Amino acid sequence: MVCAGLSEDEMAARAAAPSALTLSGLVGHMAEVERAWFRRVFAGEDVPLRWSRFPGDDFGFTGTADAAYDAWYEECARSRAIVAAAPGLDATGEHPRRGAVSLRWILCHMIEEYARHHGHAEVLRAAIDGTAVPLDR
What we know:
Elements: H1 8-11, H2 23-42, H3 65-85, E1 92-95, E2 99-102, H4 103-129
Antiparallel strand pairs: 1-2
Helix pairs in contact: 2-3, 2-4
């Protein structure tokens, strides 16, 4: 919703200089986060990260809007399938630093992740064209 109606150039705009953060970067980051938590950690899939060389690198904050959206839609669909197939919220995956994490914990973490970055996206959008997302949605 925050990105609706923006051009590729606007999606790639660095709206809060000197930060390199862009809206397309946020979308790509969320694709990378979906992939990391649901596929790599919870499902134990041996899939490479899409853009990052290692977790924490730039973690998806690069790339075009089209590539970012394609990746995000694909990863969200895969995440939903993984959650639907899980035996329950107490099922666990293995995180390299945190150890065992439950699906419940991952889902709560993802709510936090989306909420945090949605706030960032709203600030970036307002800096691009002055559009504010209504608070009553």
